[in-house]
Specification:
Low-confidence stretches: 1-24
Distance between the termini: 42 Å
Number of strands: 3
Radius of gyration: 27 Å
Number of helices: 4
Mean pLDDT: 77
Strand content: 5-15%
Length: about 140
């Protein structure tokens, strides 16, 4: 931190800092000899999720593969929001679904990323992400 000529910078111990908590806001005052600076800090949710919807054709293809792998009847509704567990898939079924997706789309899914797939939309988004990286 640079100080202009004729000014001074002073450091104060933590005990001189005034901190008060009001609901979810925290106020901090940093006293100085001439002026006092005050900051208000508001917590931000720790989870950030960027979502980008896959193409409808990709979602439809994933729905078709999921139906085939789980041997679901043609009248069973499978959409992007469908959760594999709600469709009756166990962990082995999920592995088989991922293998079917890899074969159909000509991709390879890391085991770590495969474990994050819970819905048809998750799978479609991951497929498009992998294809995009593959093409770049």
């Amino acid at each position: 931190m640079a100080a202009a000529a004729g000014s001074s910078v002073s450091m104060h111990s933590r005990s001189t800092l005034a901190a008060a908590k009001f609901s979810s806001l925290k106020s901090f005052a940093l006293p100085n000899q001439r002026t006092s600076m005050s900051f208000r800090v508001q917590p931000v949710p720790a989870r950030l999720r960027i979502s980008c919807a896959a193409k409808p054709a990709t979602v439809d293809k994933v729905c078709s593969i999921v139906k085939k792998q789980l041997a679901l009847s043609t009248d069973t509704a499978v959409t992007g929001e469908s959760k594999f567990a709600a469709l009756g898939a166990d962990s082995l079924d999920t592995v088989e679904i991922v293998m079917g997706l890899e074969e159909e789309f000509g991709i390879s899914v890391d085991e770590e990323k495969a474990q994050t797939i819970a819905t048809v939309q998750d799978a479609a988004d991951l497929i498009e992400e992998i294809i995009e990286k593959k093409g770049a």
